[in-house]
Amino acid sequence: MPPQHHFEQQNIPKIIPRATYMTIDDIKAVNDAYIANEKRKAVIERANKKADGYQAMKCIFKLMVDDRYVKRYETYIDITVMGYDHAFIFYNALRDIPLFIKYGKENGVWQHRLFKKLFFYDQINWSYGRNYVRLIL
């Protein structure tokens, strides 16, 4: 039997395989994979926020057929959103999703970005108390 070398007895490899060295191309590949994963996470997060916004708007439109929350006039419909179970959905959408933009110089009035005749009033009103949505007909 041939004699064994000292480094073989300690399980130290004779030559370190090339795969354990990281080349610039390997580092770039790892970095590209990380960036792609972060972009994917960002897209999913934006999609979830947008879905929450649409869910809030769906809730508002459902409330339009319920007389407990609605006051109808000839030129507009007002929907109260304060103090009910559905209010938190709408407020989360207003805060987290840019579906509404500040309207003019008035404080507490927000206009829907896509549906220009839909306004959110975050202010006190004598007939509603606080916070309502107005749809201009």
From TrEMBL:
Origin: domain of life: Bacteria
Q: Report what the protein is called.
A: Uncharacterized protein
